[in-house]
Amino acid sequence: MDTHALRLYGVRGLTAISIAAGLAALMLLAASVENSALFSRWQPWILLLTILGVIALMALLARKLWQLYRDFRDHAPGSRLTVRTVLMFGGLVVAPLIIVYLFSLDFINRGIDSWFRVEIKQGLNDALVLSRSALDLRLREQSRRTEMLARSLRELHGPELLQRLDEERRSIEAREIIVYDATGRAAALSSDTPMAQQPAPLPPDVSLQVAAGRSYVSLNPLPNGQYTIETAAPIADAVSAHATRRYVLIDYEVPKELSALAEAVQHTSSQYGDLSAVREPLKISFRLTLTLVVLLTLLAAIYGAVFSAQRLTKPVQDLIAGTRAVGKGDFGTRLPLPSRDEMGFLVHSFNDMTKRLRRASEEAKRSRQAVERERERLSIILSRLSTGVIVTDRELHLHSANQSAATILGGDFGAATSGANLAQFAAGNQRFSKFLEELRGRLQSGWDEWREQLSLPGEAGERVLLWACTPLPDERERGGVVIVFDDITALLAAQRDAAWGEVARRLAHEIKNPLTPIQLSAERLRRKLLGGMNAEDAQLLERATHTIVQQVDAMKQMVNAFSEYARAPDMRLAAFSLNQLVTEVAELYRLQDPAAEIRLDLDLSLPEIHADRGRIRQLLANLITNGIEALAGVAGGCVELSTRQQRAEGTLAAVICVSDNGPGFRKEMLGRLFDPYVTGKPRGTGLGLAIVKRIVEEHGGRIEAENRPEGGAKILVVLPVSDQDRSLLAGGERRVELRRERA
Amino acid sequence: MRRISIVLGLLLWLAVPPVRAAAGPLDGDFQIRSAFVVIDRGVLQLNVHVQYPINERIRSALQDGVTLAFDLELNITRHRRLWWNANVLEMTVRHELTYHAVTDRYVLRNDQGAEQESFPTLEEALDRIGRVEDLPILVESQLRGEGPWQVAVRAGVRRGRLSDTMRALMFWSDDWHRNSDWYTWTLTL
Questions:
Q1: Where are the domains of chain B?
Q2: A360 in any annotated domain
Q3: Rounded distance, CA A653 to CA A80, Å?
Q4: Cβ within 8 Å of A, B 37-96
Q5: CA distance B106 to B96
Q6: Is position A561 within any domain?
Q7: A721: which DSSP letter?
Q8: Whether B186 contacts chain A with CB within 8 A
Q9: What ipTM score was computed for the predicted complex, to two decimals?
Q10: What is the domain count for chain A?
Q11: What is the arithmetic mean of pLDDT over A360-374?
């Protein structure tokens, strides 16, 4: 069971105890108020139950007040409103309650005091004294009469005595006359009730009095409200004072009127005394009862005030909590409807508002997701674009860039964060530095929109970029620009290739046709004229026609070479071992020219490649020829062929590297090495490397040429191993194809 | 808060009557000195000697008109095994003592007011109240079942002649109420 449930049960238990104790005390009080014996027995229980109820109520109230204080201290939502409401309710209840309490206290004091006025007590005392006086007079009178009778009874005994007693009793209207002897026993009796019981012995107090020779008189109340006067006196007999002393006791009846009056006074006085004695206790009881009732009412009122205030402010607290939740972005908050009043309307409006907000939030979320998806899509497109894209500001702080930008510029943005300066990526990179220099110059001169070509130097030759800059629509104030650039070096080369191909085709077509008639005509001239000419002329003709035929052959060879360059025969792709082919070609050259030193460094793990074996053979032959020719006159010249495999971006490629330790490429030729008719050799056609490049491109590969740092030239050919690799590589190189088609 | 504490303290004080009784107007020697039951010709007769307290506050209160009620409670129960004791007899003998101001005597009445005695002194009156002699309480045949029986006697003094409503109102502050301890003994036939 968790703490919350325990607290809940605790509160319910206390409430139940409070109510049960109060009801039980009330029931016991009601049952016992008519029965004093029951009341005496149950009084402790009544008190205990009352105290228990009060304590339970106080505990409940203390808990409520502590909750209130804690919420107020912790600035809980709605706590201040609750406290204000409690104070207001409490003030409204407590103030009149205290006024009524004080007024009631004063009323009780005055009221009870007024019941016991001094005048009443004095009047009662006076009446009592008057009654006593009246009765004292009669007492004295009866006492004197008794003494006189005692004297008259001297020497009377027996029947005389009885007769005298009867006469005297009737004469003085006494109830009873008894004569006792010295031992206290009745010696003679005269009574108005002849069947009366045997007279009782002389009471001790009477006996003591009269034995001492004094008269005795006493006023006695009867149960019926009557009074009797009992008098006694010694009878002084003449014979012997000690031996024959007797006593007469007379019981007089007080007149009824006097008895009634005296009894009324006595009764009233007694009642007044009874009530008067309870005056102070009664006041205390009333005060305590009133205090207890007020206390209970006060506690219940404060508890009710706290309870009502909390109930009243609960919807407000819910609203505050709900508003905070909405402020934190939780639009799913729904508040319970407290009632159908204004507060209910407010809560309903809040719920409606959160419902709308939630709908709007979901809409915004969907939009954001769509934007995010678009951004991702754009990011993917950008990353897949072969065009470099850089977004920067005028201070060249990088906002974003794609991978192609880094590839084209030869840099690496890596995990560059937005805001990094582009200069830090260009350190040690000649191409990138030149790019930034151009960019900075344009932006600083206020130029933010252009489209032109840009030549950048590089280790592997000059690169030509087509770059364009345009300001971002919303970033013009902040100077944001987007730079889009493309490496069109290959495109230009392709254009040149295409142009040269066309030239070669036309040249071959136009030149090849007249060459055969020229050669036939020259041979015919020699055949016709040689026999009829002198030796000197014949020798001249022989030399001239020989030269014509020889040059025509040379021209035919040149035309055939052009035709070969311009012609693009169908590829016959097949799987073969590149290492084996390299070895075969190298051995062929070793056999042709034993002086040539050709070294092989082959990767034995290289898989078979899918390519046109004949064209690859031509490629290898051209490259080896190039290398051997470059080594002419170089002591210790060596051509080195190496193969290896290269994995990149999910593709597998075979790399052929042909290097030599000759003089290397001339620097001004590096950018145009693969163009037709570009050659550094005196007798070269300039088509060897152009054909190699064409073969590489036909296979979807790439070729790079550079000078080795230690001297000599190096040509790197990258060929896809399979058709799949070719198609993947072709994605990256597609623009070359497209450009070629355009060209 | 202070006021609440005072009221609570007062309530607790009121809830402990024995403490208050020690300093009340009925302070003094109040006990049952002897009690026994005799059987005379098949009738059980009760004899009790009670010592009631006597002091000037009692005398003064009586002379101011207060009526005191003297209760003698008698319980006879029969022991039962594994069950509550059976109640054989439960009776109360009540007397009221008042001071008769007109005659300057202390008047003692029984419960019904039919019998009345008056005494010149308070001591005589209390002595008379405290001596119960040969009070028939039960005939032998009414003692059903097997003995022994438990007899318990207790005397009590309280303010008399108050209506029950008034007495209920005064239960907070009425200190004119005191009982003696139960005097018990076992009755065998």
A1: 2-187
A2: no
A3: 77
A4: 61, 64-67, 92
A5: 10
A6: yes
A7: S
A8: no
A9: 0.75
A10: 5
A11: 90
Inspect the interface and report whether the beta carbons of A274 and B165 lie closer than 8 Å.
no
Q: Quick check: A401 and A379 in contact, CB under 8 A?
A: no
Tell me whether residues A33 and B4 touch, CB distance under 8 A.
no
Give rounded-to-5 percent helix, strand, coil for chain A. Answer: 60, 15, 25
Q: Are the beta carbons of A398 and A421 closer than 8 angstroms?
A: yes
Give the pLDDT confidence of A286-296 residue by residue, as tens digits. 888 788 888 88
Question: Could B167 and A39 be called an inter-chain contact, meaning their C-beta atoms sit closer than 8 Å?
Answer: yes
CA distances from A219 to A96, A174, B107 (A): 59, 14, 12
- Residue A365 belongs to a domain: no
Can you read off the two tokens belonging to residue A74? 């912790």
A383-403 pLDDT, tens digit each? 777 788 888 888 888 888 888
Residue A594 and residue A702 share a domain: yes
Q: Please answer yes or no on whether A273 and B65 come within 8 Å at the CB atom.
A: yes
d(CA A714, CA A711): 9
Domain match, A507 and A483 both = no
Do residue A262 and residue B102 have CB atoms under 8 angstroms apart?
Answer: yes
Order of all β-strands in the sheet with B31-40: B31-40, B43-51, B131-139
**Is A286 close to B169, i.e. CB distance below 8 A?**
yes
Per-residue pLDDT of A1-26, as tens digits, reads: 567 777 778 878 888 888 888 888 88
Per the prediction, chain A carries an average pLDDT of: 82
Write the residue in A39, A51, A131 that is nearest to B11 by C-beta: A51
In a domain, A618, yes or no: yes
Q: Report H helices in A155-227.
A: 158-172, 204-211
Q: Are A301 and A93 in contact (CB under 8 A)?
A: yes
Let me know whether A610 and A676 are in one domain: yes
Domain interval for residue A635: 570-742
Residue numbers in B near A29 (CB within 8 A): 168
Residue/partner pairs of A306-312 with CB below 8 Å, 24 or more apart: A306/A61, A306/A64, A306/A65, A306/A68, A306/A82, A306/A86, A307/A64, A308/A85, A308/A89, A309/A82, A309/A85, A309/A86, A309/A89, A310/A64, A310/A82, A312/A85
Domain boundary among A458, A487, A516: A487
More confident residue, A587 or B24: A587
Q: Report, as an integer, the average pLDDT of A147-158.
A: 83
Q: Is B1 on the interface with A (CB under 8 A)?
A: no
CB-CB: which of A44, A282, A292 is closest to B170? A282
DSSP string, A573-622: EEEE-HHHHHHHHHHHHHHH-TT--EEEE--TTPPPEEEEHHHHHHHHHH
Residue A238 — very low, low, confident or very high, per pLDDT cuts 50/70/90? Answer: low
Q: Are strands A598-601 and A639-648 parallel, antiparallel or unpaired?
A: parallel
Percent of chain A residues past pLDDT 90, beyond the cut: 7
